[in-house]
Amino acid sequence: MKPFRKIVISDTSCLIALERIGLPDLLSQVFDQIMTTPEVAAEFGKPLPRGITIRPVVNKKLQLELETILDLGESSAIALAVETPDSYLLIDEYLGRRVAKQYDLDLTGTVGVLLYAKEEKVIPAVKPYLEQLRQTGFRMSQSLVLDVLKDAGEF
Hints:
9 helices, globular, five-stranded parallel sheet, 12% strand, 155 residues, Rossmann fold
């Protein structure tokens, strides 16, 4: 996995998923600079985890175009990533990831964050958190789980 020495921009899904598995501050433990949009902060609905700054999207036209196919949080996060050079987008939803790839954005999701956190020795293992994610209703394919466990040396 690529090292995350870039600006990391989070969508709502990653924030919610990490909170549900008891790791709300994981992003600030592994990344130097984390940003999100006011729209994502509103969707999250509570104070943001430590170390996350809010930055509004400048290109509202792009955000509005994205809102025709994606929700407000995803649209704003992708628009912010497009206008932020050297950024890395955290997004889980399939359609949002497909759209982000059309803009040639570097991206990963909650599972990728867990794998990176293990590589950085911030968490001791990925497997228990993958199991907790599944228990919260987080959808991931069995092949993804097996690939991640293999990459983490836990398979």
